[in-house]
Specification:
Blueprint: H1 2-6, H2 10-22, H3 24-39, H4 43-46, H5 56-62, H6 68-79, E1 94-97, E2 108-111, H7 113-133, E3 140-143, E4 151-152, E5 158-161, H8 162-168, H9 170-178, H10 187-190, H11 195-208, E6 213-220, H12 221-244, H13 254-261, H14 268-279, H15 287-291, E7 297-301, H16 310-317, E8 322-324, E9 327-329, E10 332-336, E11 349-351, E12 357-362, E13 367-373, E14 376-382, E15 387-388, E16 397-403, E17 411-423, E18 426-434, E19 438-439, E20 446-447, H17 448-463, E21 469-477, E22 484-491, H18 497-510, H19 514-521, E23 529-533, H20 537-547, H21 566-574, E24 576-581
GO molecular function, one term: acid-amino acid ligase activity
Domain GH3 middle: 349-434
Pfam families: GH3 (PF03321), GH3_C (PF23572), GH3_M (PF23571)
Length: 585
Amino acid sequence: MLEKKEILDVEKVIRDFEVITKDAENVQRETLKMILEENGCAEYLQNLGLNGRTDPESFKACVPLVTHKDLEPCIQRVADGVFSPILTGKPITTISISSGTTQGKPKFVPFNDELMETTLQIFRTSFAFRNKEFPIENGRALQFIYSSKQIKTKGGLFAGTATSNVFRNSQFRKAMKAMQSECCSPDEVIFGPDFHQSLYCHLLCGLIFHEEIRLVSSTFAYSIVLAFRTFEQVWEELCDDIREGVLTSRITFPSVRSAMAKLLKPNPELADLIEKKCSGLSNWYGLIPELFPNVKYIYGIMTGCMEPYLKKLRHYAADVPLISADYGSSEGWIGANINPSLPPESATYAVLPNIGYFEVIPLKENVEEHMQDNGNVSFLSMEPKPVDLTEVRVGEEYEVIITNFGGLYRYKLGDVVKVMGFHNSTPELKFVCRRNVMLAINIDKSTEQDLQLAVEEAAKLIAKEKLEVIDFSSNVDVSTDPGHYVIFWEISGEVSDEVLTECCNCLDRSFVDGGYVSSRKVDAIGPLELRVVRRGTFQKILDHYLGLGAALSQFKTPRCVGPANNKILQILCDNVTKNYFSTAF
């Protein structure tokens, strides 16, 4: 009976979700009121003159839009141990550290119990809808999750990546049990100090429990692809471990070895079965269902900068459904995937109106006010005013602004989303791109999505030779006159100069931004350059970030390497083996 009581009541979760989304406007007002009542005594809000008011109109009139740079001094004071309420009414005891892969520098973000609860609410909501489509029971999850080492700030606060703070919270494992999604790996593997060793042990645990695995997941699609690329290299060693019941010497940490020893027993029959399955695969197609015959789906964030990994993930998955996980960031969560049957490229996220107060900035062309001044026309460029969550229009794109229970007020997240529709009265959003990840030299503004589409188009040329782009990045080179785009490719094998020259031309032609095309035609932007880097280059970039304390669970390949990411640019440039210039214009 006890086990049954611990199982999540998915029907109740869905009923609760339907209630809060039917009147999203009022729920938003009440949520803002709660946030301001709980944190009204905070120094930040006190200084803005709210004077106890909690209505949206007063809030917007008093509180400015901010970025992380604006809040950095306040957050640093929190991290330094200033005891007075600075951003929140109750003391912040934990700091989340962003991956730093977008801006080149990790950010400190407050984390508290309220944010943990919103995290679990998002997890429960998406699981409830997911479990209706793809029910799992009496099984385990192969979760490629990793926790970075927690540090202590100057003020004695615990600081770790956002994912690590979640994984270390006692409520996380309890919630995973209730959702029948408990990781098959022991804690010692998840919290192991070396991700290479943890990854190997995750794979080994998955094989030991191969018939019980119901889902394969990680925070990002990248981590799942990396795991099975690694499997291709180490599968024979894994089979040896299973056959002999003895863990490889590559695992050196005593706590990890001890935990794995409790699971690993000699099993020559299983080793033979895995060897037979692996030997029978064609180029590893369908590897995941072959290893885990009862797997129901593969789960992780698969939108935005993760979309380039979907082709490889589908290769490993064959017919196993891919489901994109929920929408959020180190700063907080926004929406849940309540349409799990949609392919990741079409995934939408229903905003939960009670986990934060949300506004959005319309991303139309800047408003231009024409003013006559002594017969001359001048232009005053104005950013459109933010609108409330329930005032958005289907088909339009917006930048997200969040106000949450963790001390962020009218915080510009930097994400661009498109409104695809509504669930009751709450919008369903599609993630488009990061607003500040952009290639720009002249009047051009090529986004992360533009880059991704160009790479996908050019990669078709090497796909004909059964090769693939393993990973890619970009840079604006202004050391030449005129400046030009540089695209870095790591490729799975050797490609002829002729084909790569055509790839370079294709990349150049595939950037569709009007400013780029017109600038290229008049040579205001120089010919695009394709630089091919040696195998393992992007692994070196990953290792660099892990060496700085990032967690694999949170890693995203930097798609546009700017001035703040000098070390990454150096790694890329030091590993270039060939380069080509476009003749497309």
